[in-house]
């Protein structure tokens, strides 16, 4: 009985290892994704702004842009410019890169909110 139990456990361990390795759970291809984000980041114009109390991603983007792009586009561009930041939880006093869609703004310009 013990022999069957250990055989079943061994087969289960082998099967889960096989599924893990073949399903792509290992971080492969991450370098290609990072390169794509860097090249896309270069095409997105932005302004560095320090967040004040009451500011949101949408309110700051509306304040610095004359046109009104879609919310999906704003979220996508913000994620490209700030890869490790949750746009729903901006921290007061921290500076983030916000997408700038006005042609008058230069890529990488710096400004602070009053």
Automatic annotation (TrEMBL):
Superkingdom of origin: Bacteria
Region forming the signal peptide: 1-19
Keyword Signal: yes
UniProt-listed PROSITE patterns: LYSM (PS51782)
Keyword Signal part of the UniProt annotation: yes
Domain LysM residues, every copy: 47-98
InterPro entries noted in UniProt: LysM, LysM_dom_sf
Keywords, sorted A to Z: Signal
Protein's name according to its UniProt entry: LysM peptidoglycan-binding domain-containing protein
């Amino acid at each position: 009985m013990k022999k069957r139990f250990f055989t079943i456990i061994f087969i289960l361990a082998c099967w889960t290892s096989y599924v893990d390795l073949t399903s792509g759970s290992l971080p492969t291809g991450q370098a290609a994704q990072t390169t794509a984000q860097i090249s896309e980041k270069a095409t997105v114009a932005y302004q560095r702004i320090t967040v004040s109390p009451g500011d949101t991603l949408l309110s700051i983007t509306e304040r610095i842009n004359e046109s009104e792009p879609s919310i999906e586009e704003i979220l996508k561009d913000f994620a490209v410019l700030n890869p490790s930041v949750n746009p729903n939880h901006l921290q007061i006093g921290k500076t983030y890169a916000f997408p700038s869609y006005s042609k008058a703004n230069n890529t990488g310009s710096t400004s602070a909110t009053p």
